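@channel anyone free to eyeball this complex?
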Amino acid sequence: MQYLVSVIDDKTGSATPDELAAINAFNDRLEAEGHWVFAGGLADPGTATVIDNRGGRAMVTDGPFLESKEYLAGFWVIRAPDLDAALELAAEGSERCNRRVEVRPFLGG
Amino acid sequence: MSAIDAADAVTRAHHEEWARMVAHLARRFGDLDIAEEAAAEAFATAVERWPADGVPPNPGAWLATTANRKAIDRIRREGKRDDKHREARTVYDDDPSEPPGVIDDERLRLIFTCCHPALAMETRVALTLRMVGGLTVPEIARAFLVAEGAMGQRITRAKAKIKAARIPYRVPSAADLPARVSGVLAVLFLVFNEGYLATGPDTGPVRHDLTGEAIRLTRLLRALVPDDGEVAGLLALMLLTEARRTARVSASGELVALAEQDRGAWDAALIAEGHRLVRERLATGVAPGRYQILAAINAVHTSARDVRDTDWSQVLALYDQLARLDPSPIIALNRAIAVAELDGPEVALAIVDRLEDELAGYHPYHVTRADLLRRLGRGRQSRAAYDKAIDLAGNTAETAYLTRRRDQLG
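replying in thread with the prediction:
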């Protein structure tokens, strides 16, 4: 079963050096224990570009598709046997990166 | 076999077997939705067949076998439509269910799944009443004054989340158990309180269906985790509260305060059982949690044959103990009531007035103030406090009581 752990942020600026070190240590643990699938930090939402090619003519718009105070700052994709195990890992991730996280299962996980 | 006997047998089996059946089916088929539907269909079949065929010699086994078949039928039906269910088909067979008793912990798994912290509180309550309590969706909707469709959706969404997010079907690990049991107790206490002081202008003042169900489920939990002191404490608290139920509302539908209740009308058997549980917990010497302390407070009240015999210093000592555990303004308010009996209403009022910021929207705060002001002869202020309490109270019997008290002020 795979879960997306989204990091929710409302601050400007990315992780501090201390936070980064803690996140790296956590990532090592995820790999060592077989939970690691993928993870990454995202650049500021102001760097986003929206593209809509549903009509066959690509429309390009500057900025994120949703303007909000809180945004996705990064994510993990983890492998866990069930939600309890995923929540336990996510709780540690939240502590390490010092931000709130949302846990959501992949479809047909 | 009369139709009435058969109907009684179905009702009895429903009380005794529902949770066990749903729990076992959920374990076996790995799907709460299938478990719920198969159990419901088995009972519907019993309602149809037992009056004509007679009640089977072992109703539980008959129901379990019938429910198993219903579940397998549904999986076969869906398996034909949808290949994804093929894997599920590998787990079923026509074996009769395991003998009861061996699988008691399955009900415990079911309770922990329904009360999982990843579900919203109101969802946990609804799911527990449906899956463990066996109440129907319309019954639960009525109990919480929610439209039937909305309640059905809440339960459907919860089952979908449990499945999609893979909320596990198991008893939590020893490290997590105390916190998770306390989450289950919160659900049961909420069901009980809604029954005991029902809100809403169109409901009866006391909803015995809800208090009774909460007690039944707490008894079940106690049988499953007999060593947990807080489970015993909550059961004792519910029993000692329920014992006063009939004395608590007058013939004219007005709430009767504890001091004015006819203590001869209290249920002696429930009180004896509650006292026994409290004594058992005291004998263990283990530091009590909040439900055990609340139960002990109720044990002191129900030990007094006359309100004048109440051991208020004991009540106050217990509230002091509770306040150390939970320094909430609501505990402080209840503690002040004991202070009023020991040190007089003036001392108590000073304590109560300090709670205004936090409790201005909580009607018992105004009820307590109104009563203390009345005892101090400050009629005008008392009347204003009663007005506020009446505005905020949602229970019909309580509103009637408060209105009379206000109108009796000189």
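from a first look: DSSP finds 21 helices and no strands in chain B.
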